[in-house]
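Methods — Computational structure assignment.
A single polypeptide chain was analysed. Its primary sequence is given first, followed by the predicted tertiary structure written as structure tokens.
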Amino acid sequence: MISFDKILEEKIGSGIYQIRTISIIGLIEFCDGIEYVFMSILMAILQKEWQLSQTQIATLGSSFLGGVVIGNCICVYITDKIGRKTSFSIFAGLSVMLVYYTSFVESYNELIILRLLFGIVFGTTSPLGYVFITEVAVAKYRGRFAFSLTLMYVAGKAYLIFLCFFFLDDYTNGNWRGLIRFNGIPVLLCFILSIIYLKETIRYYLNKGQYTVAFQEIEENHQIKVKRMDQQLGS
């Protein structure tokens, strides 16, 4: 019996299918890096701007981390139930909504709920990227692709720090609402790209018993691989 890894290596290989998928999920990792750093900056700013106590600040952080735990717990169930692509697009869309809603928030209680929801989105999308890698990348390249996701996460952190020079006066003061709205651009782009270009993984179709669809996807990607090889030989 042939394994799925063997199908990936011999029939599909590495090409535009993997690059497109990794690019899109890498973008959400980039946005996750932005969000993680922004959370720390936001708490410092709001502590001064809204005169929050240490307990209130701790509650904000705890609500986010609690959401991350919930997101991690439901990630596997949701992705197995409705698919990797659908789950990714839904939570990317939710992230867009939460980003822009947060930029208009006026009350502490609202922010607590938004931080919890953001944590759930973060906790779901972060492991989902690595699920995609195990299901679309051939075994010998999975480590490299996983490392590229980590780099995108770090790049997101660096990107936010760079933007802080333009939006913030210092670590505890500045236009944080404008900053978060600007940060919504990458996640909005990720959501749009996931709707248009991201495909459901072949392994998911096989796991759900949708063999006809799976074999069609395998054949389509195989033809792309053959065409690419012919072009390389021709040149």
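Note: DSSP finds nine helices and two strands in the chain.
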